[in-house]
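User: Okay, second chain of the day. Same drill as before: sequence in, structure tokens out.
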Amino acid sequence: MNQPSLSKQEDMQAVFDQLNKQDWNLALSDSGSADWQEHWALDGEKCKVTNTADGMVFKAGPEAGDNAHHGVLWTKASFPGDMKVSFDFTRLDTVNRYVCIVYFHANGIDEGDFAKDIHAWSHLRQVPWMKTYFENMDLLHVSFAAFGNDNDDTEDYIRVRRYPVREDRDFNQMEVDGTIFNTGLFIPDQAYHVTFIKTKDQLAMEITGGDKPLYHVWDISTVEETVDGPFGIRQMWQKHSRYQNINIYTK
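Assistant: Same drill. Structure tokens below.
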């Protein structure tokens, strides 16, 4: 497993624990069992969202290569400042390709049709082409339960990016240092508890449910701060997952 060393894991756990014990106020709580439309808006007409007793099932469209088969769920509410987001995640697909993503503090670039309020131009995202997002949104991206696009290798990764692309920052340059490879997590039908804590300078992560907890901390002081906006969950085509007990906390 290509993860940080034990001593590094202990250091990262200490950072996570310190942030986690701060005073957090619950801003959104969704068990996943009630009507998803109370808290969420959907980009992607080929996707399906179903509420069950075990959580919210989010199924992207079945056709790889067709951008209409991506999907994004956005919170209707915006969340300012430091955030803690936790949820139970179960991968329901068996396709070792493509990615799931969470988005923090999403805003439009406030140019042309792409107003700061992303809900104002949701009609432009009926086909949720990924390029529309990384060219026209200002946000922090975390891909997880993520695999390559060209083979069925079981090696996964967790990666952070800072949108948007600019003249001085192409798609590859949006990546924040600290990508993790081959976590050994996200086995189909196995539940994991995922927590992200985002501050001005750090993004700390804890994932439990595997053989041992995984901790990681990204230094996001290297990119521009994000301060306010909706939270989002993206699934690329063919991805199928269950989300339960989604809780969003702010300061």
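The first helix runs from residue 6 to 20.

User: Thanks, on to the next one.
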